[in-house]
Specification:
Helices cover about 25% and strands about 5% of the residues. With about 80 residues, the chain is α+β, with helices and mostly antiparallel strands. A hairpin with a 2-residue loop joins strand 2 and strand 3. The longest helix has 13 residues. The two termini are about 20 Å apart. The model has no long low-confidence stretch (mean pLDDT about 95).
């Protein structure tokens, strides 16, 4: 069964505590700590994910749960990983 642990909107995935966002093509309705999008809502299609990503970036790419932001977080590196999928 295919499992997605990275947010389709912003690409965030916590390597220490990976959480399933989609499993077998079914969204698990998990809120991303980074961008605040909910799997199965803002990312139901690649078009909606791109729209949500643009809105998040245009708003300054602020963390939804700032207490979860790693000290070494790098937005550019995260976006590069997202585009390479």
């Amino acid at each position: 069964m295919f499992v997605e642990t990275a947010c389709r909107v912003c690409g965030w995935s916590d390597p220490a505590l990976p959480e399933d966002l989609w499993r077998g093509g079914t969204p698990l309705h998990v809120i991303c700590d980074c961008c605040g999008s909910e799997s199965g809502v803002e990312d139901i299609s690649w078009r909606t994910a791109l729209r949500a990503r643009k809105a998040w970036l245009d708003a300054g790419a602020q963390w939804f749960a700032p207490e979860e932001r790693p000290a070494d977080w790098d937005l550019t590196a995260q976006l590069v990983r997202l585009r390479s999928r």
